[in-house]
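Batch manifest line 350
LIGAND: pyridoxal-5'-phosphate
JOB: complex structure
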Amino acid sequence: MATGTITIDLDALAANWQALDRISSAATETGAVVKADGYGLGSARVARALARAGARSFFVAVAEEGAAVRQALGRGPAIYVLGGHMAGDTEMIGDLDLIPLLNSIDQLTRHFEALPGHSFGIQLDTGMNRLGLEPGEWAAVAELALPQGPKLLMSHLASADEPDSPQNADQLAAFHHMTDGIGVPRSLSATGGILLGPAYHFDLTRPGIGLYGGLPFAGATGVVTLSLPVIQTRLVAPGEKVGYNATWQADTETLIATVAAGYADGLFRTLSNNATFYAEGTPCPLVGRVSMDLITVDIGGLNHIPSSLDLICAEQGVDDLARAAGTIGYEVLTSLGARYLRQSIGGAPA
Ligand SMILES: *Cc1c(COP(=O)(O)O)cnc(C)c1O
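JOB STATUS: finished
ARTIFACT:
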């Protein structure tokens, strides 16, 4: 088989959920964000493992993702849709008991007309200016919306991964101003907000990246290993060049391994001449350009020819690779392509 393998450690995933759960008090419920196919790892697999760990509230971006998670989890767990109730979603939301987080007056109207009496939450904008009712809109419609019994009032922090940003306290104050005294459960924090402290926890938290081993949860356990098979090796002589546009040249005789993955698999072209693979802990530099389906690696430092090389592993986490690529761990994970074999280890039997 000539595709790479992503190995997902379900025990590490569960341990990360439990670690984030322990940061907030027992009065705060810890949810789980499984949007974008569980941050690229397979939403059915991760949702089931997180449910076994104790999660009872799940968040997805769009109703279609909610349908997949409902199928994996069955009836029972709450599934919130961050994108709210869009035209065309009504049947899915109704039949599969999804909870849309309504973000505009249009959506409130659509939901109350199409599915009267069906669960919903309300998304408030506290300064990110991305999704949610503005303070003025909320003031205008709260009197109409609250008697319909929202399950949750939520907002989202724009700078929670920068603990010193004054925007955090500003958004916290705005959220209090918009929700104090209402008596509906509240949610403000994703992974970064959980780490800002108890003032940010409210009734329900929404961690995503921290569950999957990414920053800003520095205490996370790695969940993902990415291993790419070696499909050919060759010895190149001093002066020979490797890869598209000959961007790397050997200055001594070098053993080159070609592995089966490339930018079509989410291994960004910015990693060209700028990343390190590992063979059982020994670093091997990526040389030349990342191609669509292939990458070349200098394995001269090894005393054997490995059957595969690791790009995400104990020595190099998702965020280390992201730094080399000039991006964030979120983008590395959610870019991992469809060609990889995804397999899981650990996890109590279902
Ligand atoms: C993606 C998202 C989350 C999860 O964020 P992480 O930083 O991955 O923990 C939570 N809430 C909302 C509204 C989101 O869009």
